[in-house]
Amino acid sequence: IGTLVAAEASEAALSTTEVLMFVVQLLVAGNETTTNLIGNGMIALSRNAAQLSAVQQEPERIPALVEEILRYDAPIQILFRRATRDTELAGVRIPKDSTVLPCIGAAHRDECQFPDPDQFDIDRSNTVHLGFGFGIHFCLGASLARLEARVAFEELLGAMADFELAEPNVSYIDSFLLRGPKRLPIH
To answer: Which parts of the chain have pLDDT scores under 50?
Structure first.
């Protein structure tokens, strides 16, 4: 944030409104997404006893757990992008300046990229996912989110030898963009 504010004197500076919008995005993206990553992970583990047992027996596998959660049930399901030029994708013409909504959740279920994509598997060999975006749109907070999730799972799984969802049917937040439970009571 300091770098953004300091850059206001340069020719390529963001406006005050753009800086404020960026700060709000950082605060929301850095909180809501990590919260949903942890919640989605607890749901997946509660429904996959073998995977839960594996990470409890070998906590060093928690980073692989985090990557599989990001692929299996990513907290961000859709991105908004703008086409920078006229292009064609899979036979569909996309005019320059069109809004495009890549569906991360669908990409993560692509059988060509992920064998048995509907299976939650912390031992998956292909861990390349779009949970944090890609290229110039890669998430600024990816390292922090991974660290927060790793520490959360170390603490949660270390404190609970066994757990289950208190309510078998999870209600998710009302959003087409974000995916996570509204609340997640566990025993």
So the answer is: none
Residue 46 CB: number of other CB atoms within 10 A?
17
Mention every residue, 6+ apart, whose C-beta is less than 8 A from residue 46.
Answer: 52, 163, 164, 165, 186
pTM value? 0.86
Q: What is the pLDDT of residues 51-75, one digit of tens each?
A: 999 999 999 999 999 999 999 999 9
Q: What are phi and psi of 44, to 5 degrees?
A: -60, -45
- Angle (CA) 83 85 88, round 5°: 80
Helix (H) or strand (E) holding 70: helix 62-72
168 secondary structure, DSSP code:
S
pLDDT at 9: 66
Q: In the numeric block, which tokens belong to residue 68?
A: 């599989």
Contact by Cβ (8 Å): 146, 66: yes
Q: Which residues contact 97 (CB under 8 A, 6 or more apart)?
A: 82, 83
Tokens representing 133 are 């975006």
